[in-house]
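Task: complex structure prediction.
Instruction: return structure tokens for all chains below.
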Amino acid sequence: MTIDELLLDRHIVVCTGSGGVGKTTSAAALALRAAELGRRAIVCTIDPARRLAQSMGLEQLGGEPKLVPVTAGRSRSKGELWAMMLDMKSTFDQMVLEMTTPERAEKIFTNPFYHHISSTLAGTQEYMAMEKLWELHEEGRWELIVIDTPPTRSALDFLDAPRRLTDFLEGRFLKLMMLPYMKAGRTGLKVINFGTRVALRAVTRITGSDLFADVADFFQQFEGMYETFKLRSKRVRELMTARRTAFLVVTAPTEPSLKEARYFAERLTDEKIPLGGIIVNRAHAVPGVAGLEDPAAIAARVGDGVLAEALRTYGAWRAVSLREERLLDGTLGAMEDTPVWRIPDLADDVHDLRSLHEIGELLAQVATS
Ligand SMILES: Nc1ncnc2c1ncn2[C@@H]1O[C@H](COP(=O)(O)OP(=O)(O)O)[C@@H](O)[C@H]1O
Ligand SMILES: [Mg+2]
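Output:
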């Protein structure tokens, strides 16, 4: 399958991968490409580099979708590129508002513990990215939705984090913490409870906030919302596994990154999430030249000078390219039906629509393996 076929066929494309490999760049380039192909596309970015955000008109708070003025003339198609930045907190607020009464929502919003959870708790960003995906899908304004994913260290966190957050809100986490105390039995519980109370009082004195009361109140407000919460997760899950969804795994052409991509791809298949393909970003593809198999030997023969220098430079880059090919064969070689696209390592950072367009062109040209 070519990247254009994928972009014309799917409704949702999710770019995943470990931190720094080029997820945000790929997501933006793919959405732009789709627009150039005539589709009404939106990209929801999470942590765009400032200059990239600026080039898409997202310099201020980008929580709302904005139409990106794609230079006229490049395509006379009726395609549109929309872009937005995920605003984690307002997405969480919106979700709470939909799940409960305004009074309860208000109580939750003023709870300091909620502030902590909605802005810093690990896993919240992943969860909210999927919530936003559902919202955009429900709005029905876009033919293609491209979702960028948070800069987690490991791509696998992306699949596990939402479950962790659900568990946490269900109070399983809290129960787990309480378990040792409960096991201690009645008398033990009293003793520990006393100690805990003292400790909490100390914490309250130091931090100036009644943490214990906040946490208790938060869970009380959330009581009764778990079922709705679970239902929503299930719905998002269905969207993730739908036929017109494709997950793309972005990777660097290095061994650890490729291995993780492979592992992640397998995990997606296990979870019945459609794998669209793998994007090897920042690849160094230096073609072989007949008669130039051993550039160093020829360089030695021509003596010192510009030609020898050029030959040696070519030889060094060709070696890098060959090593990457071997790595790719070794890690992804067995995944025969999975398309692999390569994006070359460009001389400059990708921070404007021109270079995004260039990446789209390159993705469309490269033959898949
Ligand atoms: N093919 C490429 N060539 C050159 N620079 C790139 C390429 N892909 C990404 N970059 C740069 O690498 C940095 C990280 O890319 P980004 O897409 O933000 O990664 P991620 O979202 O996976 O953390 C950015 O500065 C981006 O401009
Ligand atoms: Mg990113």
